[in-house]
Design goal:
The structure is a homodimer of 153-residue chains.
Chain A (H helix, E strand, L loop, with lengths): L6 E4 L15 E6 L15 E7 L9 E4 L2 E6 L12 E12 L2 E5 L8 E7 L2 H4 L27
Antiparallel strand pairs in A: 1-2, 1-8, 2-7, 3-6, 3-8, 4-5, 6-7
């Protein structure tokens, strides 16, 4: 179970502190030339799933303090980047494709983060199924931070 | 960039042929005991993102024939399991948690598939953003198959 980078994220964020929580900024995904052919037809989609490797992540704790609640939560009930397998995941809007470069909106990854997979977002299977999803312990809490820890979400 | 299994999927599907496309069946996720504490509070969420390793995947081609269209598509414009990094991804409904075992609806993975991450599904960041997503080249095609290849979706 070894991952190989298929490309890299280019973003304005140099550190974890600079990267916004689930940000709305514009980033680029530069795919390696060898995978360029695999992007054919991707511009027909408005949204993509992007999977990346949080290479700045350092270890993990099964109990996590978040910015949203004074009580610690179980790791898998949070979006902390410090995970057993530090896989980053975002839904992004595809702004433009030029050759092997995708311009996307909605990544919060640090510049230089390795990309490991890209899949098309297909509403029929990706959002209809979750049409009635709740927000769990985060219900009503996303608007106001409890503290400024960066680990939590 | 090495992945370690955090658990395993238990499903009724023994082979790729048996596993439904984006199925609606009930599966279990058995987390390793050592990660059990990380599931605390997860039962407050109705839906989860599940990430797994498609260990039955064998190589990949950058041009993919799908069941939905006679024209081959670029790999990253499809959901084929044969990918440079064979990461499986589904949104599932959490039916029940008992200790380190999650019962979920919506996985189409083969019995024994390694689980690599679980994240809470949070509508605010996971579906509002994709509220106007289209279906790309799949628009209008999901209802009828062009052929019976298993590779495509």
């Amino acid at each position: 179970m070894k991952l190989k980078p298929i490309g890299v994220i280019r973003s304005p964020y140099r550190t974890r502190e600079e990267a916004p929580h689930q940000g709305k900024g514009i980033s680029r995904i530069e795919l390696k030339d060898e995978f360029s052919e695999g992007l054919r037809d991707i511009e027909s989609f408005s949204h993509l799933h992007v999977f990346y490797w949080l290479d700045r992540s350092e270890g993990f704790s099964l109990s996590v303090r978040t910015p949203w609640d004074p009580e610690p939560k179980g790791l898998f009930a949070t979006r902390t980047p410090n995970r057993p397998n530090p896989i980053g995941y975002s839904v992004v809007r595809l702004v433009e494709r030029r050759g092997n470069v995708l311009t996307v909106e909605g990544l919060d990854a640090i510049d230089g983060t390795p990309v490991i997979d890209i899949k098309p977002y297909i509403p029929k299977i990706d959002s209809e199924r979750a049409g009635k999803a709740n927000s769990g312990w985060l219900e009503g809490k996303l608007g106001r931070r409890w503290n400024e820890t960066r680990d939590g979400f």
